[in-house]
Specification:
The protein has strands at residues 9-13, 21-22, 25-26, 30-33, 59-63, 71-72, 75-76, 80-84, 91-92. By secondary structure, the protein is mainly β. It has a three-stranded mixed beta sheet, with no helix packed on it. It has a two-stranded antiparallel ribbon with strand order 2-3.
């Protein structure tokens, strides 16, 4: 069995239209970052209902942006990330090209 390491937390999400956003906190269990052309939050979903687990603050489960300086083997190694509006409705604002 392998030991799990703690994943980076979503320190802040200012995309209030996301169903997982409760007062600038993300309450998904884990999020996925990345698409072919930018650091999109793949977990973003715009719905009128609130989702997620109230007691949780999301973690970065996977990052598909291999060109990010925080990425090693598609895992995020930033201490924490921020999600906000950029190229589309919800992007990782912590993303930094290598």
């Amino acid at each position: 069995m392998t030991a799990a390491t703690e994943m980076p937390r979503v320190e802040e999400c200012v995309v209030t239209s996301c169903a997982y956003n409760h007062t600038n906190d993300c309450h998904a269990f884990a999020i996925t970052i990345g698409s072919r052309d930018h650091a999109h939050c793949g977990t973003f979903i715009e719905m009128p209902v609130r989702a997620g687990i109230e007691q949780l603050i999301a973690q970065v489960g996977a990052c598909q942006r291999a060109d990010c300086r925080h990425n090693a083997e598609l895992e995020c190694h930033a201490p924490a990330i921020t999600v906000g509006p950029d190229t589309d409705m919800a992007d990782c604002m912590t993303y930094q090209r290598r």
